[in-house]
Amino acid sequence: MRLLFLCFFFLILTLTSRAQERVRNVRLRVVDSSQVEIRYDLINARPGDSIYFQIRSRLRGALRILPEFVRGDIGTRIVAGSERRIVWNALANGYSLNEEIRATVLVKTGLLPAPSAPLPTEPTIASRPEKPSQKPTSVTTPLNPASIPRLPKRSEPTVIGRDTVTARPAPPAEPRPVTQPPTRPDPPAVSPTEPATIPQPADVSSQRKRYAGPAWALLSAVAPGVGNIFVQTPNPKVGLRPFIAVGCYGLLAYGLIERLKSRDEFAVYERQKNSVLAEPYYQKANSHYHRYYLATRTAIAVAAADVILTFLRGLRNNQLRSEARRLQSVTFRPGIQAGQPTAVMRYSF
């Protein structure tokens, strides 16, 4: 009895040691302060085995792990090998990693069901159906003379005399209305003496054109840069031209102010009795006069240049307009009126 007990005890130890040796080198690591990474080596795997793990805290004991927060080499169909990896999102599972924990990887052995042998099937003999006897059957139906339809009697000729036969006339056929197809109305005849008139486009020269001649130079003389706007073709262009007038009038105003200052300084210079003390006033008066001269002459030069350019551009526009009129003095327009070729020639001078 004691020997049997010892054999049973050693058998249990052997099975336990084999079960523990299937998983080795279990390592635990925290990733990003929210996930737990478990790595292990699976020695061997059998069909039907299932890998699972347990987490045990020092303070709370066994933790409840939800499967939706676990991924990696866990569950069934795990191939044996090293560096198997399981990741558990502890923070999403509701546990903060601020305490000591321990991980255990376990293998649950499953038994595959043995394939069941198919039951022998006995051959069944199908009985052949008998062919129905095909014998001709005769059915006799008595003939009822009243049920036979009678044909309508044909009109028999009436004998009036020998060799004379008169037949009854057939009823006259009703006349059917004859429908005639609708006739299309004839198109109105076009008289050759009165051709149809086709509207022609209006002449370009008859339209009123914008004036862009040299007369705009007078406006440039009053407001430099403004008259040059209207001599631009095909449409007026503003740009920075209004600033020319502002600059010219600004220079003139600055020059006049400097001229007044020059006169005041020169008047003070004339009242001085000592030539040494009067020299600074003379220099100031001369400096103000020099600024007045430069400002006014610059404004006049810019205004004169704008007037000249506007005048020349206006003359050029008039020449181009005259050339266009000369080219358009004779026009020839072919066309078709009432199916006949026509031509319109116009001469202007």
Automatic annotation (TrEMBL):
<feature type="transmembrane region" description="Helical">
    <location>
        <begin position="238"/>
        <end position="257"/>
    </location>
</feature>
<keyword id="KW-1133">Transmembrane helix</keyword>
<feature type="region of interest" description="Disordered">
    <location>
        <begin position="112"/>
        <end position="206"/>
    </location>
</feature>
<keyword id="KW-0812">Transmembrane</keyword>
<feature type="transmembrane region" description="Helical">
    <location>
        <begin position="211"/>
        <end position="231"/>
    </location>
</feature>
<feature type="compositionally biased region" description="Polar residues">
    <location>
        <begin position="134"/>
        <end position="144"/>
    </location>
</feature>
<keyword id="KW-0472">Membrane</keyword>
<protein>
    <recommendedName>
        <fullName>DUF5683 domain-containing protein</fullName>
    </recommendedName>
</protein>
<feature type="transmembrane region" description="Helical">
    <location>
        <begin position="292"/>
        <end position="312"/>
    </location>
</feature>
<feature type="compositionally biased region" description="Pro residues">
    <location>
        <begin position="169"/>
        <end position="190"/>
    </location>
</feature>
